[in-house]
Design goal:
about 25% strand, 9 helices, 8-stranded mixed beta sheet, single chain, about 325 residues, 4-stranded parallel beta sheet
């Protein structure tokens, strides 16, 4: 029987009414007591890493989760992390970069309703997560929710209340779980015996996200330039900048780059990604400036990967190289 370690971090799955709205208050012992059937799947141990609303999760907490898995890695066959849904896709992406090439599965899950409610989705999500983590063909970081196993770099929360809150963006779900059966759509990745993951322990939090709107000028970027090491700029459509390569926005991007900062360009459209070479307003910018293009990466993956790449040190060229190196199917060109 496989040994699985559960890391409890809070979220809706662990929430109770506080008198001022829902707040995490349920311990890992209580969570597991609602789903006794998981002990028929595997041997379960658990630790309470934190008990936070996922709105309050920070990159520091991602590092804490990765460290906990690293310490326990040799003693377990897999890991399940219970987490709030609001930033769950960010956490799944971040762990995909902090723990790369893992032959053991690391599953992130949660729920849209507290596990103590009668009509909750929490019990099925938790059971399915242990089922997936106990399967010998499961590897790397995944998000398991509403009967889907989604790669950690491809998940996005798209619904605020429905049980089918998460989608796999521009890539198929790795598997579905129906009536206790795990059905894989994709051939599982294989690892040689004795393979070890690559653990990383540094992230750079000083990343700014800016989404363009029609008529936006460069003033905000100019004011924030000295506070951040890198910028993610979400443009329109397949990727363009108002004014093209000669406009005031492009000139401000040039000032960021002149100070040794990294810039990632991506689309604000949820699906199908960017291609800045298509239109003049994008092609001019890409030809003139050394920008990094995210193509069909999710915002969550692009954010976490940029923080990870910056954390490894090096100049802008090395950061760009790390960002463009595919990890767990996060970028398809």
């Amino acid at each position: 029987m496989k040994r699985i370690l559960m890391l409890a971090t809070g979220g809706t799955i662990a929430s109770k009414e506080s008198g001022h709205g829902l707040s995490p208050a349920i311990t890992w012992q209580e969570i597991l007591s609602y789903v006794p059937a998981v002990r028929e799947l595997c041997q379960v141990d658990a630790v309470q890493l934190m008990n936070l609303d996922s709105t309050n999760i920070t990159p520091g907490h991602w590092l804490e989760m990765a460290r906990a898995i690293r310490r326990a890695y040799d003693g377990y066959d897999g890991f399940v992390i219970t987490h709030g849904t609001d930033t769950m896709a960010y956490t799944a992406a971040a762990l995909s970069y902090l723990i790369q090439n893992s032959p053991k599965p690391i599953v992130v899950t949660g729920s849209q309703k507290s596990i103590c409610l009668y009509d909750t989705d929490a019990r099925m999500n938790l059971y399915n997560s242990f089922l997936y983590a106990s399967d010998g063909d499961s590897h790397d970081v995944s998000l398991v929710f509403d009967g889907q196993a989604i790669l950690g770099t491809r998940a996005r929360k798209e619904r605020t209340k429905s049980f089918n809150a998460f989608s796999s963006v521009d890539y198929p779900a790795a598997a579905v779980i129906r009536d206790g059966r795990l059905i894989r759509y994709l051939a599982p990745r294989t690892y040689p015996a004795g393979a070890r993951p690559d653990f990383y322990d540094r992230l750079e939090e000083r990343v700014l996200l800016l989404t363009l709107i029609p008529g936006m000028g460069p003033e905000g970027l100019r004011l924030l330039r000295d506070r951040y090491r890198a910028l993610i700029l979400q443009g329109f459509g397949v990727g363009g900048l108002p004014g093209g390569g000669e406009g005031p926005l492009a000139q401000e991007l040039g000032a960021w780059l002149a100070q040794g900062k990294s810039i990632v360009m991506m689309t604000q459209v949820p699906y199908e990604g960017s291609d800045m070479a298509v239109y003049q307003v994008g092609q001019q910018v890409k030809e003139k400036y050394r920008l990094i293009e995210a193509y069909n990466m999710t915002l969550e993956a692009a954010t976490a990967k940029l923080m990870w790449a910056l954390g490894q040190g090096g100049d802008t060229e090395e950061i760009g190289r790390l960002f463009c190196r595919p990890v767990n199917m996060d970028m398809i060109r």
